[in-house]
Write a structure and sequence with these properties.
Layout (H helix, E strand, L loop, with lengths): L6 E5 L4 H17 L4 E7 L4 H7 L3 E5 L15 H19 L3 E4 L5 H10 L4 E5 L6 H6 L5 E4 L13 E3 L15 H8 L6 E6 L6 H9 L1 H6 L2 E6 L5 H8 L7 E4 L5 H7 L2 E4 L3 H10 L3 E3 L9 H10 L5 E2 L5 H13 L2 H12 L6 H15 L1
Parallel strand pairs: 1-2, 1-4, 2-3, 4-5, 5-6, 6-7, 8-9, 8-11, 9-10, 11-12, 12-13
Helix pairs in contact: 1-15, 3-4, 6-10, 7-13
Length: 370
């Protein structure tokens, strides 16, 4: 089989946690095999429909969507959307003729991998979380390979199909060793003072923001700095709270453009526990306090966080306890050098910097075998 004939479909998305690993795999495939042809299949009106073309790849959107947890009329049209998505998937596969189909999770991966399996096209699943959702568990029965980021996934998948690869991450987010001075200039902070970085996603995390607001005065008493990414939904509230104190040691922003510099500056990081974020943090090798979001399917962020806590690679604070405990705990850790060192060492052992390349090589191997 000549290399130029390799056709790969990457399906899935919905959130950054699915989209960015998918793009990392695609980029790694193109690095190894520039002649490979890639097509993304996503869900209409979701993040991938914007991010994938921005990265230079073609994408087709399916009308698929998820079940609404609350009673909703939208749930009544789900069977229609599913049937339409299966029909579209059959047409896409017939026209594009993929040698292998990769599923990264999210709504669109279900119909595409199901059709591919029925047509005996090899499929590979990339499972980001420590807890496998029902779609991937069903799809795994016909999948050839399942790439996972956590130990112990044989309780969800056939053991002989599992590869422990880690989650692909955006390389540009990982800080270089020499960026502390650049980071200090960028954020207008003192490179010699200890810094807490609080990140809660682009929309913001209420429990993280409320804890910081409640304990701002304690930052005033400590020789500490804070980079506070509050999210666009909380910016005005956080700004009003911050104006009550004359704090030059707090940088408030709804969004951080240079995440690599924020990571470089941080001595302690406060974060949600999404799978992609955890994989980034493992490569950043900094002490982390995780506050799992309670608003996710099957509480998978708590499971992700607990898998690190068991290895003494992170501290976890429950969302409902964060308001009282979170910032005081972060301040306490900045004073405990040994604790910080141990957390850094243990989380670094989880990091897998070559994850995207390892998965890409497996995808290409499957394509050539076919």
């Amino acid at each position: 089989m000549s290399n130029q004939n390799i056709h790969i479909i990457i399906s899935g998305g919905g959130t950054g946690g699915h989209v960015f690993p998918a793009l990392s795999i695609a980029n790694a495939v193109k690095e190894i095999e520039p002649s490979a042809e890639l097509l993304f299949v996503g869900a209409k009106d979701r993040l991938e429909m914007r991010k994938v073309p921005e990265a230079g790849y073609q994408i087709i959107g399916l009308p698929i969507s998820g079940i609404q947890r609350k009673l909703s009329v939208k749930n009544l049209i789900l069977p229609v959307k599913l049937l339409k998505s299966l029909a579209m998937s059959r047409r896409i596969i017939k026209k594009f003729k993929p040698d292998v189909v990769v599923g990264v999770g999210g709504y669109a991966s279900g119909p595409v991998l199901r059709v591919a399996s029925k047509k005996r096209i090899p499929t590979l699943i990339q499972e980001q979380n420590s807890y496998a959702g029902i779609t991937n568990r069903l799809l795994s029965k016909k999948a050839e390979k399942i790439c996972v980021a956590y130990d112990g996934m044989e309780k969800y998948f056939p053991e002989e199909k599992i590869m422990l690869t880690g989650n692909p991450v955006r390389k540009e987010l990982i800080p270089g060793k020499d960026k502390k001075e650049e980071a200090a200039k960028h954020f207008k902070l003192d490179p010699k003072r200890r810094t807490i970085l609080a990140i809660g996603g682009s929309l913001g995390a209420g429990s993280i923001n409320n804890s910081i607001i409640m304990h701002l005065e304690s930052l005033n008493r400590k020789d500490l700095q804070l980079i506070w990414q509050c999210g666009k939904n909380y910016y005005e509230k956080a700004k009003v709270a911050l104006e009550q104190y004359n704090l030059s040691n707090v940088i408030l922003t709804p969004f951080i453009n240079r995440m690599d510099l924020a990571y470089s500056m941080a001595d302690v990081i406060i974060s949600r526990a999404g799978a992609g974020t955890i994989s980034e943090l493992a490569l950043v090798k900094k002490p982390v306090i995780l506050v799992p979001s309670p608003n996710v399917a099957e509480d998978h962020q708590t499971r992700n966080a607990l898998s690190l806590v068991k290895k003494e690679a992170a501290i976890m604070i429950k969302d409902q306890e964060a308001k009282d405990k979170l910032l005081p705990e972060a301040i306490k850790i900045t004073d405990d050098e040994e604790k910080r060192r141990n957390l850094s060492i243990n989380i670094a052992e989880i990091g897998k910097p070559d994850s995207a390349r390892v998965i890409a090589e497996e995808v290409l191997k499957m394509a050539r075998k076919k």
